[in-house]
Amino acid sequence: MAKLAVFVLFKNVIHFGDRPFLSPKLVRDQCKNFIRSFQYVLGVVHPHRSNFSVELNRTLISDRHFNDIKNLEKYATKHINWYSRGQKDQVHPYFNYLLLDPRITNELRQRCVRMHMLDVWYTFLRAIFYIGKGKAARPYVHLRQALQLFQKERPNLTLDYAGRVRLARDPKLALILDIWRQQRGVLLLRGFRNIGSDDAHTREAAMIDALGMNHLTNRRQGAYFGVVRREFTIVQRKLLGIILLYKLFKLFMNKKRERELHPEHFIKSRSKYQHAHMSLPLANA
């Protein structure tokens, strides 16, 4: 046990010239991560409470289960091989996107060095509140709809009856307004660009099933097409969703900083909007 702890520490030695140096902060963080990993192995860590699917919750049990996500690539490959047949010369403008709550991520990229990877993975998943598909400026439609309600409530901080009914029917808009009221902005992550409509539908449906409708603000489940619809079982569809979420997780963690979308990004004249949205933060996968 002691030898293993020393090995973990010296894997992350900082070198100054030819002399290795262990930063006290680095030692402390590595010790915490080592203890956390050992607790996961022993099963003494309380499981993360979530509304995720059983299959996705399993990836949060231990390091081994998390690392097994990479073995799910075969499901994505099978789907891509089906869709790629006869599609090479066609132009596809669709993509998938996630809306995330920055109050949960809270600059996760910078904080992750002090966190165990399972906790980082869980934080990313918990921050996702909407999964969508579209092309061009489709993700910003939700934010413009929320802006209409946000501007109505600004004078007296109350909405009329129609506005309250709309929020009750669309929890996505209610959550966006709640984020804006706390002076934060919505995070937008775009991925899987340049794919077809059926492909985008299938990826969206798989990720929704993996995360679970009880966790998301999506009001409808997605639709499957092609080999995923014909041959995949319900469990395999969720496993496809997990590997897709993992790909977007890696994309998100490679971003240098979290760029939040505030109402000010959208309070522009209608004629200027098409030009303005091009400067908003985007992401690719």
Describe, in plain words, how this protein is organized in 3D.
With 285 residues, this protein is an alpha+beta fold. The chain folds into two domains: 1-46, no CATH class; 49-279, no CATH class. It is built from 15 helices and six strands. The strands form two sheets. It has a four-stranded antiparallel β-sheet with strand order 4-3-5-6. A hairpin with a 2-residue loop joins strand 1 (14-16) and strand 2 (19-21). Helix 9 crosses helix 11 (171-181), helix 10 (161-169) crosses helix 11 and helix 12 crosses helix 14 (234-253). The chain is globular, with a radius of gyration of 21 Å. The two termini are 40 Å apart. The relative contact order is 0.15. Mean pLDDT is 80; it is low at 1-21 and 269-285.
Mean pLDDT: 80
Count the domains: 2
Query: Which regions are unreliable across 5 or more consecutive residues at pLDDT < 50?
Result: 1-21, 269-285
Order of helices and strands: HEEHHHHEHHHEHHHEHHHEH
Rg, alpha carbons? 21 Å
Side by side, the strands of the main sheet go 4-3-5-6
Number of strands: 6
The CA-CA distance between the termini, in Å, is 40 Å
